[in-house]
Protein: Acyl-coenzyme A thioesterase THEM4
Amino acid sequence: MPTPNAQWAGSDFQEPPRTTGGVALCGACRAAGACRLGVDKERLGADGVAWFELACPRSQEGGPNVAHGGWTASVMDECLGHLPLLNRVLSVTAELTVSFVKPVPVERPVQVRAWVERREGSRWYIAGEMTLLPGGAVLARASGVWVTRDPGHFARHEAWLAEQ
Ligand SMILES: CCCCCCCCCCCCCC(=O)SCCNC(=O)CCNC(=O)[C@H](O)C(C)(C)COP(=O)(O)OP(=O)(O)OC[C@H]1O[C@@H](n2cnc3c(N)ncnc32)[C@H](O)[C@@H]1OP(=O)(O)O
Structure:
């Protein structure tokens, strides 16, 4: 079985390491110390809406000067999925729908906002949108379901995997 990234050692899932811009780092980005998707800043507003500032790195270019759609979907997954985390709740994405409204230019500042539409049992229904700065034109919209997990989630997965 592959050895997990050493960056997880002693990790508290509810309190992941963050960049100076406040961005929570997932496993592969911890060694780099920066979000490889290009998310630069993250904060939770008093109204419960989460804000992210980012730019699509040139390495994620799809068409000429525009982002690969997989980058846009990953960013929406990442940003919307950080909203429970900003509330100290561990969750995983169960469903995600992305509308690609306009091509996303590479290396141009964009903003993502994410908010909770409703909560039912262990499910968080979260929506968000990506806009171009400074004008605010909508580039993408997303909505999805995040399911809260206890800290044993990944250990149970490893046990399940060992039996496959
Ligand atoms: C990951 C974080 C670590 C920290 C890193 C730091 C920062 C990084 C942040 C990264 C952010 C990026 C984030 C990522 O990329 S997370 C990575 C991508 N996502 C995954 O890997 C998830 C894989 N799937 C699963 O693990 C399971 O299928 C889950 C856990 C989702 C359900 O498993 P299971 O079925 O065994 O659970 P249950 O039977 O106990 O049901 C529990 C509840 O779930 C409801 N349900 C189930 N399926 C769906 C569905 N499709 N639509 C709507 N609801 C669904 C169900 O009705 C029930 O609701 P309730 O009756 O309780 O209300």
Observations:
- The chain has a mean pLDDT of 94.
